[in-house]
Design goal:
The complex is a heterodimer. Chain A is an alpha+beta fold. Chain A has 4 helices and 10 strands, in the order H-H-H-H-E-E-E-E-E-E-E-E-E-E. The N and C termini of chain B lie close together (7 Å). Chain B contains 9 helices and no strands. Classes of the chains: A alpha+beta, B mainly alpha.
Chain lengths: 203, 187
């Protein structure tokens, strides 16, 4: 008996993977694959690849979207006259959402059980603040989200009081309670300082 | 398949516009698909797309593993998409008219999880295969897409009719195209 087993053509291997062989042919193929590492590897590649393609739900970005991103480099080259920009910069965060401004019917403004939520955005940073009453004082906590890790420090400062805390690895923090009043919030990481200029706590 | 990711990134660092265009074109599908798969509509996905490539350009000198730029782009797209969803959900939740209980209102946004790692990795692999397919000649590309980019491929007779060839030629041609694809992907 010849020890030289002829290898199935790639054609045949594809038929096998696609389930186009008869039961007998399949069995013959299985036997060959159990003895032939090369063909087994081919079959594995076919199966993996077909599995990926058959479940691929990807879509191309619209042409204008891609074109807009391609223009970025030219725009950057055109606007930068100085060498590298300063690594550390100041960002003022704008208020995008404050649950306290929702209509009274929702029961939030009257100091109901839920925390007040404020969302700010400054350039590529998002700040999510929560304000919860603690007796006559206010407990401020939240999370800073940025393009890279956002560990750092946060300081809440105003005429009525002050609190500081460290940002954890996810940019989250929790400050000691402070009295009613108007405050500034400053978050500082190694890349940026994000500031909320006016935060009113309590009426 | 043309220049490697590492070569493109290094060229971009020197301000090479052609390299930047090649990089954006190479990964546009992956970045956009991650945003869409994260549940964003076309407009929101377009915003995420621009944020991701803007971030890449800003940080391009500091990217530690340029050969893994695909992974960086996918991960950044996932994070930006998650944040976009959070903002979306916050405005939707607080705008609801039907009254839910107080716990619901105080619910954090963190329960909306980003795409799992396995899904992201799979999408990266799919993007890689698709790039190989797109680099094939048109006849092979058309055949591969017809045969393998659907959960339920049509019968060979139908494909032969679409391509204007004999049914008997489909099988062998498919095999040749798959072999070409494998060679491309192994480079």
């Amino acid at each position: 008996m010849s020890t030289d087993t002829p290898h199935p053509a790639f054609d045949r291997l594809s038929d096998f993977v696609e389930g186009r062989l008869s039961a007998d042919e399949e069995e013959e193929m299985q036997q060959h694959l159990s003895m032939c590492a090369g063909c087994a590897a081919d079959v594995a590649w076919l199966e993996d690849t077909m599995s990926l393609t058959r479940t691929d739900t990807g879509e191309d970005a619209p042409l204008w979207v891609t074109a807009r991103a391609v223009r970025l480099l030219r725009e950057q080259a055109a606007t930068s006259s100085a060498p590298q920009p300063a690594r550390w910069r100041r960002v003022i965060a704008a208020l995008e959402f404050d649950s306290a401004t929702m209509p009274l019917a929702f029961g939030m403004r009257s100091g109901g059980a839920g925390a007040r939520q404020l969302l700010y955005r400054g350039e590529e940073y998002d700040l999510d603040l929560r304000v919860a009453p603690e007796g006559a004082w206010w407990h401020v906590s939240g999370q800073l989200l940025g393009p890279t890790t956002t560990t750092g420090q946060v300081a809440l400062a105003g005429g009525a009081g002050r609190a500081e805390a460290t940002l954890d690895a996810l940019g989250a923090f929790s400050l000691a309670p402070v009295p009613t009043g108007e405050y500034t919030v400053r978050l500082r990481t190694d890349a940026v300082e994000v500031e909320v200029t006016t935060l009113r706590l309590g009426e | 398949m043309d220049k490697t990711d590492e070569e493109l990134v290094r060229a971009c660092r020197h301000g090479d516009e052609a390299a930047w265009e090649a990089l954006v074109t190479r990964y546009q599908r992956l970045v956009y698909s991650v945003a869409r798969r994260s549940g964003l509509d076309g407009d929101a996905a377009a915003d995420v797309f621009q944020h991701v490539f803007t971030a890449l350009l800003q940080q391009i000198d500091r990217i530690e593993q340029p050969e893994r730029i695909g992974g960086w782009l996918a991960t950044t797209a996932r994070r930006e998409s998650w944040r976009s969803r959070k903002r979306e959900r916050a405005t939707v939740r607080h705008g609801r008219l039907d009254d839910e209980n107080a716990d619901d209102r105080a619910e954090t946004l963190r329960d909306d999880a980003p795409l799992p790692d396995e899904v992201l990795l799979r999408m990266e692999e799919q993007s890689r295969v698709r790039r190989g397919v797109d680099a094939l000649d048109e006849r092979c590309r058309t055949l591969i897409v017809l045969l393998f980019y659907r959960a339920d491929p049509p019968p060979y007779a139908e494909i032969a009719a679409t391509l204007g060839t004999s049914e008997g030629s489909i099988g062998p041609r498919r095999a040749r195209c798959l072999e070409k694809l494998r060679r491309l992907l192994q480079e």
